[in-house]
Amino acid sequence: MVMATGFSFKEKSIAITTKSVSALHANAFTAIYENLDLASLGLSKKAYEWALSGYERLKSSGQIMQDHILSVVDFSLPSNEKRLFVIDVLKGELLFHTYVSHGKNSGKLMAKKFSNKASSFQSSIGFYTTGETYQGKHGLSLRLIGKEKGINDKALQRGIVIHGADYAEESIAAKQGYLGRSLGCPAVPQSIHRELIATIQKGSCFFIYAPTPGYSKQSTFI
Q1: Are 212 and 116 in contact (CB under 8 A)?
Q2: What is the pLDDT of residues 191-201, one digit of tens each?
Q3: Which of 87, 149, 152, 158 is the most exposed place for a label (fewest CB within 10 A)?
């Protein structure tokens, strides 16, 4: 937390302090993108900026508990590239940069179609908070709570979770040119799923981005 010095109870002084703190936050987030060289790793600037916008809204409304963790999936990238970024925004560290699958009806190499409907087998974009873990048919899995009505709020009912999968490993992408696909879940490599889930579980911000024009008009988070 940024603490302002010279605090005054005068309304004008408080306004200046608030503006200064906001500017410091904005500068810090910009510095993270540049210092971690996220552009060269493939994370689009728009995806990052939108992720921060939603993260701030979720944080200010008390909907995230782990406010140092921000996860961004950038579906403007193909599945044979690492497109999941897990960032510690307080320390300015990239904790994970790895592969993540999309739904089989969203596309082959690229995720282009998205749905909030049951049995669509498509990915859902937008903002989520992470929930509790459980042992399911894919082993350790992490529930995702969709925060955007009409966009991803059916995630729990659809069983959209983070889980490990052999088809999300780099070797699969290298062999066939694209990752295996899920039924809509953002599946991650089996080899790192436990560590990743332990890092982002229980109330962190998870954002799935795609350059879909309709989303920016419908979302209340960006």
Answers
A1: no
A2: 999 999 999 99
A3: 149
